[in-house]
Here is the input.
Amino acid sequence: MIHSLHGKIKLIFIITAFLLTTLFAATVMINHKETFLKQQKRYRQSTLFILRHFRNPQNSIDDPNLQRFLESSNLAIVKSGKKAILQHAQQVLKRKVFRSRFRLYHDKDSYYLRIKNRNIDLLLRDLTARNFPWTMLLLYLLALTFLLLLYGWIIRSLKPLKQLQGEIEKFAAGDLHIHCQSDKKDEIAQVANEFDKAAKTIEKLLSSRQLFLRTIMHELKTPIAKGRILTAMLDQSREKEGFEHIFERLELLLDEFAKIEQMLTSRYKVEIKPYLMRDIVDQAVELLILDDPDDFIMIASSPNLMIESDFSLLSLAVKNLLDNAIEYSKDKKAYVDFKEESIMISSKAEALAYPLEAYFKPFHHQSGSKSTGLGLGLYIVKSIVDLLGMQFNYTRRDEMNIFTISNV
Here is the structure.
């Protein structure tokens, strides 16, 4: 099945050239057949005249009337070498006329008419010139040349489309510095120019967003650093340990934001390796700002189950699921269980009010929720799962909402 536009155009022109060639060949064959039928009629008339001429025994080959007829019919009597001609010539026609018969032979570029009965055995050479249909061949070659030139012109017109495809692929791969402007006036050039404008606008928006995020993270790191310095000046106490714990968690959150920004701008390099599921969940718990995680998260034992994924990204996805599970659960607890190539996070909560896909939109909140968050949890989880090529599913069982991340 041909899918590309170039392939479809090529197929159309190949079929057109084939039909043109077939038409030329059919026309030549029909013309040849018509000419041959006219020759048969002329040979039959010549045979009848010669037979009538030799009904009179006194008439001879040298008779002036016969010579004039043969000359007007472009025929000449072969007087020598007749046997050699008949040996090499190919018989192409055989007809009976009264009690006589005539046969037509072809040898090289000449046709020979043989008339034979009890009284005569003549071999006549047809002197009519048989010209090749050069005019028809010239018309065919002109039409074929025009077709080839038209094909080349269309392919050259589509060349910018191929270049535009390459630029779009580079843009999709994350290269925002593309250039596909065209000074032509056709529709492809218009599409290329509009895409170039859109790409430059998107590049400016992304640059502005990155600058905004980096500025915020920079401004947040400064007070965190000052807070850690002030904390270091405090005497060793429970309050000092609490402050140090909070500042460590804040730094982890800033690293998380930076990773999300890289992921959403396709600049994050995914590294898929086998990891223990428990290690991934432990890393996700570390990312949560919880004084005593054991009071909120119940983790089932796992007999060294492994999963192939990116450690940092999958930990971030599990962290967001745990955060959501704790926030929306009735008992403020999240439960983690493991299966082959699957991590399941569940909580005792109300069933989802909308289909799961509705929660993949950013800034979406559960209906009636009192949450003050940004509603980015499942949006981030879905983005990570898609980037890792994994599956994300939701089931409802025994008043529990169960979210599962698994390899395909």
Remarks:
- Residues 367-374 have pLDDT under 50 and may be disordered.
- The longest strand covers residues 90-97.
- The longest helix spans residues 5-53.
